[in-house]
């Protein structure tokens, strides 16, 4: 996969994109990441890439010209990209499903916005996708680009080396991942569940599925709306809800009346 990242701060990508899995993916020839400095395509002598917004207002806006020029250069060099992604708070939410879609492409371009935003002609004419990694404000699109690239790259066949691990991780099947343990078997009074030493793979799989369902129900219940649940899964969740109900009922009986007390 070819990934081109258009940014005002190329130095931000030096460490994250050359270490760990992404670095090894590059060495294997599975991933070719090119960092492009948007300032190189500015036509003024000071290489400025922003200006005051028409109509007034606070802050500065990234100009359209350098980005259009950069995309023209990319087309001449590599041809058209499969997807051009603008990292933007106005974009649709990034998810594991979106990462899976992007991982199927051969050539991705990421545009990192900055300042108060990007001239809207960029989004209207150059961009295929606007993506947000969350409802909060960052100084620019560089960190979101790193997040998306990392999530996408690890789905490329051969990058992780252990394809089964991709399928079992959190969000891959819509549920949070089950608890993981390693040596020692007991540490500071906390023991690893005995079922994991049983050698009974069906029982282990059943325990892991139950734990995934429990974690998802407790921490991210909204995820269950989009998960394909089996009859067994539904039975497990109903049993969990019943158990929670009994716990709350016992707690209510034991707790002193504190109406109106914070």
TrEMBL record:
**Segments forming domain tRNA methyltransferase TRMD/TRM10-type:** 1-225
The record's catalysed reaction(s) read: guanosine(37) in tRNA + S-adenosyl-L-methionine = N(1)-methylguanosine(37) in tRNA + S-adenosyl-L-homocysteine + H(+)
GO MF terms listed in the record are: tRNA (guanine(37)-N1)-methyltransferase activity
Cellular localisation = Cytoplasm
Top-level taxonomic group: Bacteria
Enzyme Commission code(s) on record: 2.1.1.228
Q: Which SUPFAM superfamilies match?
A: alpha/beta knot
Give the keywords, sorted: Cytoplasm, Methyltransferase, S-adenosyl-L-methionine, Transferase, tRNA processing
Q: Please give the coiled-coil regions recorded for this protein.
A: none
Could you tell me which HAMAP family the record lists for this protein? TrmD
Could you give the subunit structure recorded for this chain?
Answer: Homodimer.
- Give the protein family: Belongs to the RNA methyltransferase TrmD family.
Q: What does this protein do?
A: Specifically methylates guanosine-37 in various tRNAs.
Could you tell me what this protein is called?
A: tRNA (guanine-N(1)-)-methyltransferase
State the species of origin: Desulfotomaculum copahuensis
Q: Identify the coding gene.
A: trmD
